[in-house]
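Example record

The entry below shows one chain as it appears in the dataset: sequence first, then structure tokens.
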Amino acid sequence: MTPRALFVACVLLLAFAACASKGGQSAAAAASPGSGDVTTATGKLVKYEDGTPYAGVTVKVLPWPSPAPNGSCSAPPAGVAVPIEDDGCPSPLPAPQATTGADGTFSLVGVPNGRYLLVIGDDSPTSAYATIHDQIVLAGGVQALRAPVLPPVPTYTPKTWETDGTYRIATLDPASEAPCIAAFNAGRATKQLPPAVADEWLMENTRAYLANSMGTNPTEPPWPNNPTGTIGRDNLERGMFGGMVTCADQVTPEKMFREPFGFPKATLNPQALWLGISITPQKSGGDNDIHDTGMVQIIADPRNGGAIVWP
């Protein structure tokens, strides 16, 4: 969602995101012994807003090929976006796929052991919901997959299901987020660039960052256990913007997609396909007029060979 470049460390974060700790993969319980060459991967999905089970959501894994020279697949030429499903790298199976049950649980059965991109959600630029993109390593047996715990943001208190390993998907706000994504992708289209998909982890980090910035006691990074204020992605870029009333005022080809660099630069990267973006009202100036301050985070797909690691 070859490898493609993602999302983003700002409201223009295309993020994000394949999850893993610095120097590692996203958390997963140890596999059962004597499991052979395949894995049954299990997990649970809830709604970000209230923690209730999320039924009927697509869960799948896609190849995470090794880039040349360490593997049999080569990274795409610079500036070329290659769909994951057509990256030219061998896949042990067609994308194994499941659907979450009434209790939000899912099970991917008989997946050949290896490293994959876990995708939960619509994975569509026009979806009303964010999509999860995580790096996972399947080692055999029955393996419980766990969502990452994002780096802390001062003044933001995470919900219980943000810290207990449960996967969650947020509904994009129809006023402060969905229009921003639509405007961002309209700008990308003017440059003949592929659209971006809202990434769950980038959206969560963007929301928390803005909540801190617009709070009564805002602080700037470095923060304890979070020196950059982002989710730890090496090729993540972010940008703050403001002084507008709607997304359409700022997320424009003239302002965000200027040549030779975008704002941030990754807005013009054809391999940056995951992002987080949001705006929040604030009072500006002495007239108490309400304007919006926004943030965008965007990142290049880590499967393109960059040293991308996730929290």
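Notes for this example: The radius of gyration is 19 Å. DSSP finds four helices and twelve strands in the chain.
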